Sequence to fold (595 residues):
Amino acid sequence: MVKNIIDVRNLSKSFDISSKEPGLKGTIKHFFRRQTKSLKVIKDISFEIKEGEIVGFLGANGAGKTTILKMLCGLIYPSDGSILVSGYLPFRRKENFLKNITLIMGQKQQLIWDLPPIESFYLNASIYDLDKFEAKKRIKKLSEMLEIDEELFIPVRKLSLGQRMKSELLAALIHEPNILFLDEPTLGLDINAQRNLRKFLQKYNKETNATICLTSHYMKDITSLCKRVICVHEGAISYDGKLDLLLKKLSPVKEILIVCRSEEDAIKLENSGFTVKNKIKNEITLKIENNSITSSLKAILNNFDIEDLFINEPPIDEVIGKVLIKKDYDI
Amino acid sequence: MNLRKYLNVYKKFLHTSLASELEYKTNILVDLITAILSLVGSIFLLSIFFQNNGYIGGWKFEQALIIQAIYTILNGITNTWFNPNLTEIVKHIREGTLDFVLLKPIDSQFFISLKKINPSGFLEIIIGFLLLFLCIKINQINLNLSFLTLSLITISCSICILYSLWFFISTTTIWFVKTWNAIEVLRSFLYIGRFPLNSFSFSLRIFFSIFIPIAFITTIPSEVFLGLSVLWKILLEVIVATIFLITSRKFWLFALRFYSSASS
Fold:
């Protein structure tokens, strides 16, 4: 049986937030008498993550995804509840715990700006107490996986965002951690760079059985990497389970574009009782429920003269967008 | 603590920060010129003060030069290590990059206090030592083992006090987010350290000894050089330095509990 590597029980976090009224009067008032209030950003959440799992955290901006990630890696003290990561209390930041984890943030960087990435890698290697030989071996292995070579010797400030992100990944993985916390790792990357990064993460997970916790606003990251998602809405978990189940629940119908041999066939199909989305000449788009797709297609192919047929999933962003604004999804 | 690992990491710190700084040759040259001009300006200012009767607070110009030499060495140390690292703490906290430091299996205070180095500060240290040797010659100071030990102890204590004060202020960024001004105030107070403590009024002497111990930083080491020091003052400086170091360490660990990291 695969063991739980992350165990979160009734976790809450509150921050003191100050607010300011607009205008000069508000600014002066804010300077002399700051109004602060305690805001509960994470509300009594519980979940477990198994070793080797890739879990996506979904939520709107400010939902609390990054705060959860930062509590899991020990950067922020929880206000209430308990967290165990790899058997450690993260916020104690014990050396052995830190050697097991890594945090990669798409919008922040740890590489030394004026020097080639290779210098940062060797610095990190010395921090993780790796000897030169071992460090060299790991850099070679990871740079091959990430498909970077010459970039290792060019100052970071002269690298493209995609090359920089690959180097950030290498710097963050040189100690071969078995838990990866990724906060929007593909932010700002072009489509090819995003795809390469996802490919790398899949490969890394497969080869090392590392557990990956990921937040991203790019749905492609989530759909291609995560079988399981945890949806966060206003600091609470609104859904925790398989991604495909969520998609089925949120999007119970598929759109089927059928190209008929003639316009007459299309008219016949239009009047045969299926839900029609639209019809243009001999092309007709039907909406069919997921659970009756097979029987419906069988009936259509048997009774109508069909030239071509396309099954379209509704756009994932649209579907997931529904999760971000809804409080609870019981599946 | 694994000493070998920390030495290795420090070697890497030295290497990477020197390599970073050497990327900008002109900047280093400008820094060197600034250091020389700053020293010349300070000595000129001192000579003006001593022009009338040759004494300030019972100190002769030649004796006051020792304070200037120690100040220059300490300022060099400040510019070499404290300035590039401790001002960076504010940036780390404001931008949330402290996250990377805290998640490394290394002492975070060690990391943020020593990661960078500004090589141009070395020149100031060298100039300071040259001036100090000159003062030793002018004042006909007898170099013996006890003198060297005491001066080493007092200068080390001065460095510790200076570091702790600066680190303490930078740590408050965790709550106040922006503390550049407080650091500037500290730097301004340090300028006062170029003058003998006796040259100030009684109330200011108390202030600079108790509240902001600038007096300990330059005057006591200088007194050692002139053979004017008394044991209790040296012991007091050692105690003050130890208390400051321990307090700054405890304060950092305490403050980290309140670190909320910058939002993404």
